[in-house]
Bifunctional NAD(P)H-hydrate repair enzyme
Amino acid sequence: MRHSSDDLPTALYSGAQVRALDARLIAAGTPGFELMQRAAHAIWRALRRRWPDAGAVTVLAGHGNNAGDGYLVATLALRAGWKVRVLAVSEPQCLQGDAALARDEALAAGVEVLAWQKTHAPQGVLVDALLGTGLSGAVREPYAAAIEWINGSGSPVLAVDIPSGISADTGEALGAAVKAQLTVTLIGLKIGLFVGQALDHVGSLLFDDLQAEPAIVADQQPVAQRLAGHLLPRVPVRQPTAHKGQLGHVLVVGGDHGTGGAALLSAQSALRSGAGMVSLATRAEHLAAAQTRLPEVMSLAAASANQLHELAGKVSVWVVGPGLGQGAWARSLLSLVSIASSAQVWDADALNLLAAGAVSIAPGQVITPHPGEAARLLGISTRELQADRPAAARALAQRYQVACVLKGAGTLVADPHGRLLVCDRGDPVMAGAGLGDVLAGLIGALIAQGCTPWQAAGLGVWVHAGAGEYLAAKGNGLAAGDLCDAIRHLLQERAACPK
């Protein structure tokens, strides 16, 4: 997964929206062929920067404007003295409009154009100019075979606009999909580049707006926003007279027999993320470990919900679910939380009990499901959910009237009003147990310090992923608890900066 880059725009669009922007730019007076030329120059610049000594380019051309971009890239490479050929997967004479003009320019310049065959040997950098953002169904032949040829070539691959076979809207691989080392995307960022299976296919991502008229782009309402620091709230700098009572009281509820570690991680995270007070309600067997590991946390052995009634009135935020289990004990505790008036963050088994209909959640809270839990909440398979993660996140937020954090690579944050945030931070080193427990505690602590549930969900996801990036340099084997100090450091950086 590529790391985030704050020089990218934050607005994310559907494939149809970007095609509409292209049409509006043409209607406003920029000729389509000129846009295609700008695209080719942007792609060629990126290719030369990434592979300056390659000396050879093979363009795989399809039948639409993507192919036109590819033909013009081939022309530029030939004029620069590189060895060039175009392998046409679609008949070149079938091209129309601006793509046909690009083909003619390439032929006039002397570019070699051949009908693609499986027997062709790859040559230099492969430019994927096969399929664009309009793909909606499974990739058909001969494109599927050509994509398989690209992926099996062992050559460096640059994708034009989006790797062929990836949905611009969902990030799903529609059958065969190109695996690129570099993708140069144009005019507007497509949401599908940041979610789902696309993360295994995009490689490094570069963006060029092709000098699009800002007013025209601004007129298009994006489908989502990329999480970026300047869009997120700052944790207020504490005044000299600040005291713990002003910074909220987080109560973590969880830790059934044998799963006390999950609740301890959430409590540790809430503590390190700045909550004024943190309490833990757990099984009696975990009390000694909790008091030893986290003496700053007020730990309570709770046999049932009855033992939490007195504490409930003092709580600012409940974090419920880590290690909770789904038995009678869990149901008893969750029944109390569900009717509490304070803010709540529901994670793990709390969500499984919600999916089973054992309890309901009040509107306005935060839920933090991983894909399996999210699929159960929606009553669909995990495969169906992963095929369109943006739609799933929105559906969960609307069904339960909550802020939904759909975890995974390309974590999504949705609310009932249709807002959607996409996180492009993080690192594969974070693929391990317990990191979700840390995230739940972090979000709870942010709410305790004054963030709204929506703000806390977005900021929590962004900081949590940033902490993973920060620690990734140390290699695999990241323990979830390692994140807590990194989170503390990143939150302090944000608090120290002026608004």
